[in-house]
Every structure is written in C-alpha cells, then in structure tokens.
Amino acid sequence: MHINQKIITVFSIVIVSTISSVSYVSFRSLESAVIDSQLEEMKHEVEIRAALVESLHSRATEDLLFAVQNPIFAEYYALSETRVGDTYDENGVLRFTERQKAVKAEVEEWIYNFQSRFHVDETCLINHLGQEHARLVLNEIAPDEDLSPSESASPFFTASLQTPQGQAYIQSPYVSPDTERWVFAYTTPIVLSDNTRPAFYHFEMPLQLFQDLVLTDVGRMYVVDQNGILFADSEIEYDNSVGSSSFGTLPTDFFEKIDSASGSPELSNIVQSASALSAGEKGTGSYVVDGDDRYVAYQKLPTFGWILVYEKPYSLMLAGDTNLSQLGMQIVLVSALLGATSLASVFMISSRIARPIAGLAAALRLQDAGSLRKVEVKSSTNEVTDVTNAVNEMIVKINSLEKQKDEFASMITHELRTPLTPILGWCQVLKNPKMTGGTLNEKQEEAVDIIRKSGKRLEGLISDMLDAQKLDMKRMRFTNQETIAHDIVKSVMTNFQDAMRPKNIQFVDTTGQNDELVIKSDKNRVEQVLSNLVANAIDFVSEKDGRIEIGLVEQANDILFYVRDNGIGIPTDKQQSLFTKFYQVDSSLTRKHGGSGLGLVICKGIVESLGGRIWVESNEGKGAAFYFTLPKLESDRSSLQKEVKSK
C-alpha cells in the first residue's frame, strides 16, 4: 500500500470510527427517548379510547335501566291474564286479551320512543318461558304472528333472568336473527313487587360502534379477545351492514385472527400476556414484521375480557413531519459532511507527503525491463533523493546481471544442443544395417527409439526455454509476409496425420468456405502456435473416439483460428492460469501428461506479438476449445489473393 494510502486509510478509519460512534450513540439515545415518549402518548390514547368504550357501556346500561323503570312493564306483567300464561290460537300465534293489547300498545310506544333516541338495532320483551311479547326491529313493531316462542335458546336467556335487579347483563357478540348483522346485547330483568321475575327487557347494539371507536389517523388500533379474534380493527373494513351475515355464524368464520392479520407470533404472545391482566391494567411491548419494528400499547377492558391495542411502526414514532428514520438520515448526512471535510484535509496533507514518492514510482514504471536506465526525480526531500540514488545503483547491478544471464542462457542452450546433435545422429546410424554390419533385434531397436524420442523431447524443451526467454526479452524475431491462412491449417493437418493414425483420433478441418483468406504474419510462428495447440489436444482426447477440429473463421477485422477437441476438458477454476509459466492443470508428480508448462505461454506471447489475442473455452468432461485471432489483410490490399483468384 502506498504511503499516502496508508495515511488516508489510518486517519479515515479514526475519523469515520469516531464520527460513526458519536452519531450512533447520539441517535440511539435520542431514539430511545422518542420511543419512550411516544409509548406514553400511545398509552394515553388507549386510556381515552378505553374510557369511550366504558362510557358506551355505562350509557347503554343506564339507558336500559332507565327504560325498565317505566311502570308500564310491571303493569303489563301484573295483569291476571298475563300471569295465567301464554295462550295460542289454532295457528300457534300468541293470543292477547283486549286489556293486554291496550297495555302492550303503551309498552310498544315506550319502546319505540326509546329506540328512536338511541343507537339500538332491536328491542324486545321476553317472558320467563322464552316467549316474545313485544319486539321492535329498526323502529319497526313486529306483528303478533312474528313473535318468537323459542327465545329460551338465546345465549343470554338464563343469565338475563338471573341478573340482580338494577343491573345489566352484557352478552358477547353474535349475529342477530332479525337484522342479520353482528351485535352485542344488554338485558335486565323485570322485577315485580313480589320479587318475581316474569320477563326481561333486552336490546341489541351493532358491533359497528366498536369499529368506529378504534378509527385512527396514525398507526393501527384494534379490539382483540383472549382467543386472538379481531372484533374491530382500524385497518380491516368489516361489512357490518344489515343482512351481512347469516344467523349462527361463528366469530372465526367472519372476523380475522390476529396472527393471520399481522403474521407475527410475537404479537400473539403479547396478546396472551395482556389477557392475563386485570381489567383496566395497561402495558407496552414491541414485535417485528418483515424487519420492521412495531410498538404497541394496550389496556385490558372490563367488558368481555377484551384488549384494546394501539400500535405504530417505527417509521411513525415521531410526531410532525419528521419520523425517526428521517431524523437518523439527517444525522447521517451531517456526519457524512463532517467526515468528508475531515477526509479532504487528510487527503491534501497525504498528497504533499506522497507526491515525490509517487513521482519516483512513475519514473520506474516507464522503465523497459530489457533496458533499464537511471531515473531522475526532482525532489526537495532528502529521503526521496536517497531512495532515487539507491534505485539507480540497483539498476546498474541489474543491467550487469541481465547481461550475464543472457550470456549464460545463450551458452547453456548451445552446450545443451551440442551433445544432442550427435546423439540424434547416431540413433539414425544405429538403425542403418550398412553402418552397423547387421540388423538390430527388436529389443535393440526399441532402445534406440527410446534414446531418439528422449533426445527429441529434450530438444523441444530447450527450444521452448529459448523461445520463452526471447519473448520475455522481446527479442524474438518475426518475418511477416502475405500467407493464405488455410495453407497453415493444411500444413498442420499434414504434419499430424502420422501422430493421429495410431491413436485412431479423428482429425477434421472444419474451415469450410474460408479457404482464401490472407494474413500478413509470420507463417512459421502461426504454424508453431497451431501445432502446439493440436499437440496438447492429442494428449487429452480418448484413443477410441477422440476428435480434434482445426479451422478458421473470418470476422470483421480478424481471422479466428481454433482447435477444438472432445477430451476431458479443463476445470473452470484452472483456466485463468493456463497461460502462466510452468503451469500444469495436473501438478502432481504422478500426472499422466508431461510438458514443460511453457507451450501455452509461448503461444500467448507469439499471438500477442503478432497483434492478436488467445483464449480458452471449456467445461470439465466436455472437451476444450482454444481460439486465437490475427489481423486480417483486406482483399483489395492483398496481392497474393489477387494472384490466387487470377489462377
């Protein structure tokens, strides 16, 4: 890492860490205070709504008890014919005497006036046998034939008759058989002077009243029972119109469950904890939905054991036009501005320190590895001057070593080749009967072949090393001349026929119609690249069904040469290293395929020196394809192609 980068990095870490820590602590402290404050406000709002619910119940109870104080109820049930019991005509319709009808009319008028003043769906008078004696539904007085004789099956029947005088019984929600919508009922007994309870007075109020009580502009408010049923929810619009439900419908068939509405088991746990509270007790909590924090305040209601819950997401936990997320973003922006200013100062200081060193580095990068020269860097810093002088001294030593290395490489290559020449020559001589005075036996001839092959292999390794050195030093010579590209392919095909035949490898030229394309390049070097790629392919295809394709394709500005095989392929993670010196796909000592690891490096160096590029495409187990491009010579500039066409 550069010195200026180190300075910037160290100070950046210190600045960013300090600002981030201070910002984080500040925001968390502020966040905690805001959330606590908001939770208190939410608890207060829950208290207000709970008070409204209690006010609703208190008013309904007071109205109910006020209604039955009218002596007309006691008068009706004190009538001797009423005391005798219910009588019915042949159609099963309840009979009334004239005196009963007169008093009953006054009762119905009183009920009508009462129902008109309050939000009541239905009002009825039911005796101790379950027979309705009067009923008003939505201010409509029911005729005698509609009065039900089977109200003893109502869920509130027994409890209504047992409720102490001067008190009201409240029945949990159910679907009214007359209005066919969800209601909750208030009942109280009618007690005569002799303390008998011949009947009770009952009215139904729509559950929509609870839905209206939980409406809120910010957040979500709902009423939930111990079983998690949402009887009212500001985010769920229940159909509470007349006729919206069938009588007998269960709450679970109509209302949402809290776990399905929120999707959070944590909220269900909060509701269970709230259910264990006493009436009027309050609490707070939080849960997470899809990574979003939600905060809740709740209070246990005395009626039905319901819980009133008010919740807000994190994004709404701040009043006004700014929420906590926006506040956090403002802190981040201020911190970022402060950090950027500090980092800019650090960058300016580090640049002044590192600029002379960077100048020295730039001068060194311009050096040619094959011909190093002394560098000159102007600097007022003594340390940079000392480093520059040390570098120049090193350049002198390196140039000397490079010269010695070149001389040694030339000498060792010559010395290695010198003994190879007679070895290979004598191998030919030993196989000539005239020179040896007789024919070699099979084992002797096999030994001579092994010597010759080993010598040839060593000769190839020496050539590879020499070519690699020339490419490194940019001293390889190229003779560029116009050549028909397909002639190079055909030459390689001819040279490898003998190598393919014993292994039964199918060697195919797939050039097609592109057999007159001309390149201006070094024919021998291009042939060397193709030969190297074909030789590699031979090593990696099967001897039974091996197939190697060689050919070329014309492109816009290039000619694309390729060698494709159906061999074992090359693993993806090893393909990038193929063109690295001495790299072997199988680097173990027991690898099946030999080689110096220089062949593909030489191919790459030759192709790039000739103005092209080389690459590989392969999937393990599905063969490999090597491609390289060379610049195409335009037909109107090729004298060779004109000559071919004229023939």
Give the helix/strand layout.
Blueprint: H1 3-68, H2 71-78, H3 80-84, H4 98-117, E1 122-127, E2 132-137, E3 140-141, H5 157-162, E4 169-175, E5 182-190, E6 199-206, H6 208-213, E7 220-224, E8 230-233, H7 251-254, H8 258-262, H9 265-275, E9 282-289, E10 292-300, E11 307-313, H10 324-365, H11 382-430, H12 433-436, H13 442-472, E12 481-484, H14 485-500, E13 506-509, E14 518-521, H15 523-540, E15 547-554, E16 558-565, H16 572-575, H17 599-609, E17 614-618, E18 624-631, H18 639-646
Parallel strand pairs: 13-15
Antiparallel strand pairs: 1-2, 1-6, 2-3, 4-5, 5-6, 7-8, 7-11, 9-10, 10-11, 12-14, 15-16, 16-18, 17-18
Provide a short characterization of the protein structure.
By secondary structure, the chain is α+β, with helices and mostly antiparallel strands.
The structure class reads alpha+beta
Low-confidence stretches: 587-591
Can you tell me the overall shape? elongated
- Give the end-to-end Cα distance, rounded to a whole number of Å: 64 Å
Radius of gyration, CA atoms, in whole angstroms: 51 Å
Number of strands: 18
Account of the 3D structure:
There is one protein chain. The protein is α+β, with helices and mostly antiparallel strands and 647 residues long. It is built from 18 helices and 18 strands. The chain has helices at 3-68, 71-78, 80-84, 98-117, 157-162, 208-213, 251-254, 258-262, 265-275, 324-365, 382-430, 433-436, 442-472, 485-500, 523-540, 572-575, 599-609, 639-646; strands at residues 122-127, 132-137, 140-141, 169-175, 182-190, 199-206, 220-224, 230-233, 282-289, 292-300, 307-313, 481-484, 506-509, 518-521, 547-554, 558-565, 614-618, 624-631. The chain has a six-stranded antiparallel β-sheet with strand order 3-2-1-6-5-4. Strands 8-7-11-10-9 form a five-stranded antiparallel β-sheet. Strand 9 and strand 10 (292-300) form a beta hairpin.
